[in-house]
Amino acid sequence: MKKYLIETDNLTKKFDGFAAVNSINLKIPQGGIYGFLGPNGAGKSTTIRMLLGLISPTEGKAKLFDKSIDKDRLDILKKVGSMVENPSYYAHLTAYENLNIIREILNVEKSEIERVLNIVGLLEVKDKKVKKFSMGMKQRLGIAQALIGNPELLILDEPTNGLDPAGIREIRALIKGLPEKLGITVVVSSHILSEIELMATDVGIINKGNLIFQGSLEELQKRSLAQIKIGAEPKKEAIDHLLKRGYQVEERDKYIYIKEFSSPSILTKELVINNFEVYHISEDKSNLEDIFLDITRKENQDEITNIN
Amino acid sequence: MKLPILIKTELSKQRRGFIWLMILGIPLGTTMAMFLDMYIRYHDYLYVKGQELGFTSWDILLRENHRVLGWGIFLPLFIAVIATIIHYTEFEEDNWKKLLTLPVRRWEVYISKLITIVIFSFIMIALNSLGLVLVGKVIGFPEAINYRLYGEYILYQYVAILGVVALHNFLSSHTKNVIIPVVIGFLGIIVAPGVLSKNPDLAKLIPYTYTYYINNLNVGNSSIALYGGIISMILISVVGILSFNKKDIL
To answer: What is the DSSP string of A44-84?
Structure first.
């Protein structure tokens, strides 16, 4: 049976009646990287803040390491490193001094500072004031802060925010190596699907406060069922014929799209035998981005329907 | 128990910070102002007037500092600024969310801030009095220094400010806007003398008035400075901790 490091039960946060997070049931497995994906304002940061005890849920519960964040906050936080939204730092202090503050609170060895600085590649600038750091360096310092004390769980909220492509690649490589090298379970939130796709083993998609998908990356990819794109004349009669034969048919941009099918050759044969002129047939496979957009679009449409 | 470590880290956060400029600069300013005051008025006027009223030169210096220069009036405002600086350190780069995701109890964080404000305020008060001693020595007061008087002056201030420390620890922990607690502090020192003269009973409930009771310098009954400081600190801190424990860190 799969062991979950984080489990939530109908976790909800309302601000003045508005549900920023709406009854979500997260199940984040131990090991690997869990990508928490959603557009800006979807409720990712609010969820993460509830998981870390920064804000109290309006309803529901959050459990980390089988313990309630309400009751065992200290025990849980001893095992968790985090960076929420932007990195936090004291700008007038050096990187070393910033990390030393956290080290003292966590009561770990001084050597821990150099270890994490080395991991994030900031060892050479450890005595430089953080206000002189670039955005990428600050981001790496944020990750170093989260890594101090060797946490079992690392929660990183939008860790590649504001970075240039080279910086994004660096941070991605760094995060990707953590489960294997240090045995850390990582939760990464992002609004950029390609980021998650390149890092995560499991995915949760949140939109408008609702968790609309949760599972492995493979399960998400399976949703990218190929469609058959057909150009046939006369089109209207061809659609009627296919519907009668029990196919799921959609008409878009002069073409007919079939969602469930046996194979393109059977479909061609079906149409040709029945005297339809087939001038185009191709497989149209959606990528992960299309699936993400499709899932979030459906969620939005459902909401509009409910309002009407 | 992480409180001692939290206090230590609070102090290290202020390393190279603006707060030191304030803690050292304000007493330096009061020392210079009192030196000028004594240099200009001591021999011709203050000493003679003091003799008439039965005050020693050291008594006069203390009164000049507390009442004429207005140290007793402005002290709560200085404390408001100290509290604001200490809390702004957390607000500036969203450090609250980092600090409170570490394994520390919220009440310990809250109290560590309170103690840090107290430490900086105590240093500033002690330096102000040390500056006065220095002025007396340089001017060459004929009487021996009354250490008891100056010791009591410092200790009474230490206790009298506790209510204002607690109040501004509470206010500054709740708002990112640094102007609000400083404006409240400013209004506090403006309103305090008016309430003291018109409604002395109500004044006992306002922490901004407690510095007026020190050493009976402005108004009588120094015990109000002591009891008021301690009781108001406890009450305000209890409310502050309850509120801080429930506060959402957004």
So the answer is: HHHHHHHHTTSS--SEEEEEETTEETTT-HHHHHTTEEEE-
